[in-house]
Write a structure and sequence with these properties.
This protein is of the alpha/beta class. The protein contains 8 helices and 10 strands.
Length: 230
């Protein structure tokens, strides 16, 4: 589904990612972890096309997409929920969801499965998105990404600063998408408990490189101490 090989990327003259490689298959949740500033969000933005790769390749569904712009990647089936949500506060919940359809020109209505995962949003469709709580905005950003029926979903810290009840909703949504077996998920997450409850595999980063990876059951206390403990 997604194969990243020897990827390099960064900002201006600063190189952040160095020789990063990873692979994700349909129905798999790969958890990308590491201390703050190690390059996790940079990797997500580079896969989404918001940052240009300086070296290496990104292959998606057997196609080299390294040089494609973000909108072309979205139309191929890559959904992105950025850190900070980036919903459109002046638009209604429904209008935000409809924007998710821009990646799939053939779709006219938001698919039922995209909103069914977050029933709390249903009575809020005509409310201005900027008036929602942070947790509700996170649910909206997730549902908006699902509206295009992506085959690859990039989730950048979806539980950050969210109340426990909505964390449970997001956990349930990830599990449901995973059970359907069609969508690969790359998840940036700080909570070990959350990662262990939804993940199939982990990928640890340090100083812009991948330093450890494997099945989620191999994410032991020694790896946590070495690469995640502050």
């Amino acid at each position: 589904m997604l194969s990243v090989q020897r990827l390099e990327s960064g900002y201006g003259d600063s190189v952040v990612l160095r020789q990063v490689s990873l692979r994700i298959e349909p129905g798999q949740v790969v958890c990308l972890m590491g201390r703050n500033g190690v390059g996790k969000t940079t990797l997500m933005k580079t896969i989404a096309g918001l940052l240009k790769a300086r070296a290496g390749t990104i292959e998606y569904a057997g196609r080299d997409i390294t040089g494609l712009p973000p909108y072309a990647r979205a139309r191929l089936g890559i959904g992105y929920v950025p850190q900070g949500r980036e919903i459109f506060g002046q638009l209604t919940v429904r209008e935000n969801l409809l924007l998710g359809l821009e990646a799939k020109p053939g779709l006219r209505e938001v698919p039922e499965e995209a909103v069914a995962l977050f029933p709390a949003l249903e009575p809020l469709h005509e409310r201005r998105a900027g008036d929602l709580s942070g947790g509700q905005q996170q649910q909206l950003a997730f549902a908006r990404a699902l509206a295009s029926r992506p085959q690859l979903l990039l989730l950048d810290e979806p539980t950050e600063g969210i109340q426990p009840s909505i964390v449970q909703d997001i956990r349930g949504a990830i599990r449901q998408v995973k059970r359907q077996g069609k969508t690969a998920i790359l998840l940036v997450e700080q909570s070990l408990e959350f990662v262990r409850s939804v993940g199939d595999a982990f990928c640890l980063m340090e100083k812009g490189t991948v330093v450890a990876e494997g099945p989620i059951g191999e994410l032991d206390d020694e790896l946590v101490r070495r690469h995640l403990a502050v």
